[in-house]
Design goal:
Blueprint (H helix, E strand, L loop, with lengths): L1 H7 L4 H41 L4 H31 L1
Helix pairs in contact: 2-3
């Protein structure tokens, strides 16, 4: 609560700009994390469903699932890089 009251008391335009940049960067990263979270949940759910239907193909499905998780996590890392660029630019 103390940090929020300090934000409200900003008088210097540079401080206001920095506060707005930090807020928008945090919001951007939050939005960037939603997509990969939903994607990974969907991917794992469908992979478990496929393994339940065809247990003999579980190894191939698991390998493909881990590749999909890695590529989906890359989206979250890109969002984190954008967050850092917005915060310190």
């Amino acid at each position: 609560m103390e940090a929020f009251s300090a934000l409200l008391a900003l008088d210097d335009p540079a401080d206001v700009k920095n506060a707005n940049a930090a807020t928008s960067a945090g919001f951007a990263y939050g939005l960037a994390a939603i997509g990969p979270g939903i994607g990974i949940g969907y991917l794992v759910g469908k992979s478990v469903e496929a393994m339940a239907r065809q247990p003999e193909a579980a190894g191939m499905v698991r390998t493909t699932m881990f590749l999909g998780i890695a590529f989906t996590e890359a989206l979250a890392l890109i969002g984190f890089v954008v967050f850092i660029l917005l915060k310190f630019a």
